[in-house]
Amino acid sequence: MKRSSPAFAIGVALLLTLLAVALSAMVYGQLGSGAAALRLASPHRLLSWFLDDDIESKIFWRLRLPRIVGAALVGAGLAGAGCAFQATLRNPLAEPYTLGVSSGAALFAVLAIRFGLDQSFAGAAGVGLAALVGALVTVYVVWRIAAIGDHLPPSTLLLAGITVAMFCGALTMVVQYTAEVGEVYRMVRWMMGGLDGVLWRPLRFAAPGVLLGLMLLLYLARDFNALAAGSDAAASLGTHAGRTITLAFAASALLVGAGIAVAGPIGFVGLIVPHVVRALVGADHRVLIPVSAIAGAGTLVLCDLGARAILFPAELPVGVLTALFGGPFFLALLMREKRSGGLWGG
Amino acid sequence: MIELSQIQFAYAGNQVLGGIDLQVEPGELIAIVGPNGAGKSTLLRIIAGLLTPSAGTLKVFGKPPMEQERNQLARRLAYLSQSYRMAFPFTVLEVVLMGRYAHNRSGLLRLDRAADRELAMAALARCEVQDLAQRRLDELSGGERRRVLIAQALCQEAELLLFDEPTAGLDPKHAIDLFSMLQSECKNKRSVLIVTHDLNLAARFADRLLLLHDGKQLALGPSAEILASAAITEAFSIELHRGTLPDGVTPYVVPST
What we know:
Chain A is an all-alpha fold. Chain A has helices at 6-26, 43-51, 55-89, 101-114, 124-146, 154-177, 181-192, 200-227, 231-236, 241-263, 269-281, 285-309, 318-339; strands spanning 27-31, 36-40.
C-alpha cells in the first residue's frame, strides 16, 4: 500500500477531528410540542453561543463544550495507550484494557459505590477518583508480578494481566452480590462508560495527565519501533527494552486512568483506532502515535454524538455504542486482513 | 577488542558453557562452529551483553558489556540474532534506518535525518536489496529478509559485528557474497564473529575457527588447522573426507559416512 507522508497524515487526521468537533458542537436537541428532534445549528448561531450570555450559550459553555473536550481527551488517551500496549506487548490485538486496567478500575469503582462514596460529599468525582486509583494499582501489581529484574517479558505480562483481570472481575461480582438494588444499578451504569454529565472540573485534572502521557509516548515512539522485533533486537539497536516498557506502562496508566476517571471504561477505541491508522500510515510509531491520538479524539467525539442522537431525547452510554459498532467493525477488519494474507503478528 | 577468560554460563542450574577463552583483535574474522546445542548462540549473546556470564571475565572494548549503556554499546557493536520476527508491518527502509537509532538522539520524536537515509540506501545497495526499500519486510522471502537485516547491521556502522547464522536461508551465491563482504569489512579494522554451520565457507573466509562441543571449547586456531584436526570429527560425530581446492591452499570437508 502506498503510504502518505507523516505531515499529510497528521494534517488529514487533524482536519477530520476538527470537523467531528464542529459537527458535535453544532448539533443540539430541541424538545418541541411533544416531539423530540435534533437540529444542526447554523455557524452564526454557534458563534452567538460563543459570544453571548443567554441560556443557550450557558448550556453550550457549561455542558456541551466540556463534554466534547472530555470525549476528545479520553479518545486521544485511549488510542495513544492502545498504540503503546500493542507496541510493548508486540501484539496488534492488545488494547488499553488487556492488562486488567479496566477490571481493577471497575473493582475500585464498585467498592466506592458500595460504600456510598458517590452519595457523599465527593459525588460522582469520588467514583472517578477511586477508579483512577484502581487503574494505577492494577498496573503496578501486574508490573510487579511480571518483572524479572529489569526485564518485562511480554508473554508473562499478558498472563499476569489476564489473571489479575479475572480476579478483579470475581471480586467485583462479590461486591455487586452484596449490594442494594440501587447500588447495583449505579455500578452497572458506571461500567457501561459514558460522557454525560462531564463538567470542566474533572477535565482540569485529567487534561494534564493525558497531555503528559501522550508526550511521554511520543518520546518513546522510536524505542517502540526498535522493540518491534523483540528485546534482544532492541538492545542491539541501543534501546533498553525493560526501561522502555516500564515508562510506556507508566504513561499508559496515566492515560487510561485519566480516561476512566472521566468517562468510565470505554472499550474498542484503543484497539481499533491504532489498527486502522496503522493500515493507513504504516507501522512507524513516530507517525502512528500522533495520528492515532488525533483520530481517537475525533472518533470518540463522533461516537458520543451518536450516543446522544440515536435514542434522542434519551441517551445511550457511549461505551455501549463503541462496543456495539467496534466489535463487528473489528471482525470485518480481521476477516479482510485474513483474506488478503496481511494478518501480522501471527 | 574482545577478551574472554574462563567464561562460564549456567541456565537453571545446567552448565551451558564452560571455560571459554578467546581474544579478538581488530580486523579479525572468527567463525564459531559446532553441532546443535554446543553453546554457540549463547556465547554470542554473552559477548553482545544480552546474557551475563555466571563466571569468568569478559571485556568488550575494555569493559564488561552488561555494564555499558546500551546506546553507547550499540554505536560500536551490532548483533544479529538467529531468529527475527517483526510484530508490525514496517517497510524495508524503516527497518534498515533503525540501525541509525543509536547515532541519532535529537528532538522529541528523534526523526531520521537525510544523511541516515543515504547511509541506509547505501547499506541496502551493498546487500543488493535496494529495490525492495519500500516493500514490507514481512512480504519478503527468508533470504531477502536476512539480507535486509544484514544491511541494518551494516548501517549501524559498528566496529564489532556479531552475526548468528546469517547465511541460514541464503542461496550459495549470496552466502559467499556475505562472507566476502564481511572479509572486506575486516580490512577496515572491523571485527566479525560469525556463528555458522557452513564449515567450508568458514574455512575459506575466517581467519580463525572456534570449535565448540557440549559447551566446551574443543579447539581454536587457524581455519585450515582446525578443519584438518581430529577435533572436528569428534565434535560432529561424523567421518569427514578432507581435501584442498585447486588453489592448493583452501581446505574443504565433505561427510564421508
